[in-house]
Amino acid sequence: MISAPGEVHVHTSQERYFPLTEIVQCLRLAAQGRRVLVVQLLKGGIDGGPARPRKLMGEHLIWLRPDVARVIDSPPTEAEREAVACLWCHVEESVAHFDLLVLDEVGLAVRFRLLSEATLLALLKTRPATLEIMLTGPEVSEAVRPLADIWSVRCGHLDQSTSARHFMAAGA
Q1: Assigned domain for 17 exists
Q2: CA 16, CA 84: separation in Å to the nearest integer?
Q3: Dihedral of the alpha carbons of 38, 43, 46, 50, in degrees to the nearest 10
Q4: Count of domains forming the chain
Q5: Domain holding 130: CATH number?
Q6: Which structural domain range is residue 140 located in?
Q7: Residue 1 forms part of a structural domain
Q8: What is the SS3 assignment for 43-108?
Q9: What is the pTM of this model?
Q10: Tens digits of per-residue pLDDT, 70-116?
């Protein structure tokens, strides 16, 4: 789905995986010359960090992970906290240069206290008007819902997508 600039999409699920449809959208937009930043907040293990981005499709698709040795799936160490904080600072400093920002597993990052909900909400509220943001992964906070244009829940092979604009127009 190609959407209007500036929209916020939430794609949440019970499982931890990066949905193929979102990966395809990133590739499609980058192929069209749009700048895409994908940030996997909890995935490490491949010489990550802002200083070592994975650049795909020239400079159009930048893929970042924290500079940690593992996938963060339990309470993080202090070094892991610092690595994610460094990554988040880079995101805040660079969002103006991108058309699409994907924050993978942002809900779990909040749960592990690697990122505060207030910090996430501030980014969503103050983003550039043309920046589309996609949040993926489990446990995305309900506090994000009023800011979301699309909220979808992935249930195995079934998707239940909800357009916030549709509900507002219907008076729900």
Answers
A1: yes
A2: 18
A3: 50
A4: 1
A5: 3.40.50.300
A6: 8-170
A7: no
A8: CCCCCCCCCCCEEECCCCEEEECCCCCCCCCCCCCHHHHHHHHHHHHHHHHHHHHCCEEEEECHHH
A9: 0.83
A10: 999 999 999 999 999 999 999 999 999 999 999 999 999 999 999 99
